Amino acid sequence: MSGSTDPRTVALVLAAGAGTRLGRSPKAFVDLGGEPLFLHSLRTIAACGEIEGLVLLVPESHQDAAADTIRSLRSAPPLLDVRVGGATRRESVQLGLRAVPDGTRVVVCHDAARPFATPELFHRVIEGLSSADGAVPVVTSPDTVKRVRDGLVVETLPRDELRLAQTPQAFSAAVLRRVHGHPGSSRSEATDDAMLLEAAGFRVAAVPGEPGNFKITAEEDLLRARLLLGERVRSKA
Q: Residue 185 — pLDDT band, cuts 50, 70, 90?
């Protein structure tokens, strides 16, 4: 599909993770505030206003249910597709890119396991593309970071140069397609798409992230998310 009606900016929401460390599967469908975890990100994307299309990557067992849930939302970007994700994050992005129209200029990749990203954060990463091929939100590390090998510290890394990466991450659609189509993109150690751009020599801008934009990985993260959501509900009451 290509043409003037193609969405300029498309979000790939990655919700196919197995949730092994959380002990609940699939992770993006666990309950948070009475609804599936992934819906929190979709509402934020809708509130952003700059994203014109949505592709959701989910486990095969939840594909139809996810599509029905999204269509029932009163406010959401147009749903381009709900696709079965891959065994790895990289594979899910590659599969999602197949549903992105040729005329799309910007692709935003977001982990459904980060339910507290704000619309402003989506805006910042998209804006970051004005001077780079990709844009990643980062926060400072509160702790000293050690490089450890075989149980021994071999190096202390300078904390003033270290940042922790988050999602959403925004990319030139053409560049993202290019790095995912490159043979080097099959490397399993690429834990986010920005790594592929970095390895290929493209520019990746760092924009201010959000401390509250944490990723739900383990049970204590889910508990923290539920407590935070409960506090927000009480504050609005």
A: very low
User: Domain extents for the chain?
Assistant: 9-236
The tens digit of pLDDT for each residue in 72-113 reads: 777 777 889 999 999 888 999 999 999 999 999 999 999 999
Q: 3-state secondary structure string, the chain?
A: CCCCCCCCEEEEEECCCCCCCCCCCCHHHCEECCEEHHHHHHHHHHHHCCCCEEEEEECHHHHHHHHHHHHCCCCCCCEEEEEECCCCHHHHHHHHHCCCCCCCCEEEEEECCCCCCCHHHHHHHHHHHHCCCEEEEEEECCCCEEEEECCEEEEEECHHHCEEECCCEEEEHHHHHHHHHCHHHHCCCCCCHHHHHHHCCCCEEEEECCCCCCCCCCHHHHHHHHHHHHHHHHHHC
Q: What is the mean pLDDT of residues 183-191?
A: 58
Q: What CATH class does 9-236 carry?
A: alpha beta
